[in-house]
Design a protein that fits this description.
mainly beta; 4-stranded antiparallel beta sheet; 0% helix
Amino acid sequence: LAYISYDTGHIYWLELNDDVDHPTSFDTGAVGFQPSWSVDGLRLFFFSDRDGNSEIYVMESDGSSQTRLTDDPAPDYSPRWSPDGQHLLFISERDGNAEVYMMNTDGSGLLNLSNDPAHDEFAFWSPDSTRIVYVSYQNGADPHSIGEGNAEIFIVNADGSGKMNLT
């Protein structure tokens, strides 16, 4: 189980076993948010503003080899590892609004999947890693308040094709 501490700002993890009454935490030393485990359990993706801007990072589970994968003046956040271990979803504001992006786990192959003037977020993988579902705030909807517009659920293929409004 990976989690963050608001006391320290560090990412910690616990190994949960049936035979351990009181699991101990391991401090990775990483300052960040929203850790996402790799499929093999050996690495964690997370986002951090340690360099003055929210960027996506990866590290080994022991906290070593912390590597920044994105480098853009706009915020990048909410990383989610694909079930097949090949790609990473994240939200980026590099196009002037929040968009759903995908990249390879080494930071290459950047692709805007939602590509919409609306604010898009809450992206999740299908179990087979072929499709992505996300929320798009259409027709002037504001993700931070109730008012005009609609929060719609969209689905798109992992290659960016076949975008469809489900609601």
